[in-house]
Automatic annotation (TrEMBL):
<feature type="short sequence motif" description="HXTX 1">
    <location>
        <begin position="51"/>
        <end position="54"/>
    </location>
</feature>
<protein>
    <recommendedName>
        <fullName>RNA 2',3'-cyclic phosphodiesterase</fullName>
        <ecNumber>3.1.4.58</ecNumber>
    </recommendedName>
</protein>
<comment type="similarity">
    <text>Belongs to the 2H phosphoesterase superfamily. ThpR family.</text>
</comment>
<dbReference type="InterPro" id="IPR009097">
    <property type="entry name" value="Cyclic_Pdiesterase"/>
</dbReference>
<keyword id="KW-0378">Hydrolase</keyword>
<feature type="short sequence motif" description="HXTX 2">
    <location>
        <begin position="133"/>
        <end position="136"/>
    </location>
</feature>
<comment type="function">
    <text>Hydrolyzes RNA 2',3'-cyclic phosphodiester to an RNA 2'-phosphomonoester.</text>
</comment>
<dbReference type="InterPro" id="IPR004175">
    <property type="entry name" value="RNA_CPDase"/>
</dbReference>
<dbReference type="Pfam" id="PF13563">
    <property type="entry name" value="2_5_RNA_ligase2"/>
</dbReference>
<feature type="active site" description="Proton donor">
    <location>
        <position position="51"/>
    </location>
</feature>
<feature type="active site" description="Proton acceptor">
    <location>
        <position position="133"/>
    </location>
</feature>
Amino acid sequence: MIDTVDKTKTSLRRMFFALTLPEAIQQDIVQWRAANFPPEAGRPIVAANMHLTLAFLGEISAAKAQVLQQQAGRISQAGFSVTLDDVGHWPGSGVIWLGCKNPPRGLLQLAQLLRSQAARSGCAQTSLPFHPHVTLLRGATRPVVIPAKTNNQRLCVDHFSLYESVLVRGRTRYTKVQSWPLASGERKPDDV
Ligand code: 2AM
């Protein structure tokens, strides 16, 4: 019996849906961060781990992941663009982030759908409103001067992905499990 419980535990994977940042944007953000935050501001997130979370799933079984993957595959939505024109600090969680002042409707719709599908599958969702962001630094619990401007990095989003959080030699790495396209085509002005 104990054996069965242990096997079940080890098959759980910590997963989340997210938007991938292209490598060029990750590098651009790393340079901007180095120029705008002192080393003591917090622990920098490595470039390859920078992403924008859509829905956090927690530790889930393979069966639950499969259901969520099937549902994700049925999402039919147009792509959109996201401009990272906002920067802020949440001292409570120690996070310094890049975000967007006016998130496009497509981003909010996609996150809302994935979060409600996750909730229906029993993945507890935070009661906090969705605030799209890319975490730049962690452990930032002390006051810090927040730059007035970002580099306004712009992402053209044509897919979304399921990620797994894994420990590699004691370090957290996010590995992509599966991606799904967002439809291309005419974009309405308010989607840009
Ligand atoms: P964060 O960057 O704001 O910490 C992988 O851990 C991703 O899932 C991170 O982007 C993280 O957001 C997010 N995440 C982790 N735990 C979460 C939780 N309990 N609720 C919502 N998002 C979470």
